[in-house]
Amino acid sequence: MELDPQTTAKEPNKFGRPSKSDYSISYDSPLYKLLLNKLPPKLIKGDRIDTLALSKGTQNARFTVYRWFKEQRLSPRAVKSLLALCENGKGKLKKVDLIPFLDL
Fold it and tell me: What is the CB-side half-sphere exposure of residue 101 using CA atoms within 13 A?
């Protein structure tokens, strides 16, 4: 008995948590470079952003932080949380820096 390949091929699941391959960061992306240069030093490890510290500081899931870098977009809530990390002169990040990445 031969099966029809069109009916037996299962569609990949497009719901749920993305695969681990989606956890990649482009270190040359404009958003990553901006945050690397303007976030407070406590969020930087060596020459990289500490994504765990950033996720805790912004109260977002770590995957959300990776998604920011991958998609090069920030929600209004993400912008507010990033700016809150830089209050009182602890960082150089300003609202005008994030406007190009704002996803409305």
Answer: 26
pTM of the model: 0.74
Scan for tokens 């960082």, then name that residue: 91
Closest to 34 in 3D by CA, of 81, 87, 96: 96
Task: List, for residues 28-48, the tens digit of each pLDDT value.
Answer: 999 999 999 999 999 999 999
Range of the domain at 94: 25-101
Cα separation, 24 vs 20, whole angstroms: 8
Helix, strand, coil % (nearest 5) of the chain? 55, 5, 40
Q: How many helices (H) and strands (E) does the chain have?
A: 6, 2
On whether residue 93 sits in a domain, the answer given is yes
Q: What does 58-73 look like in DSSP terms, one character per residue? A: HT--HHHHHHHHHHT-
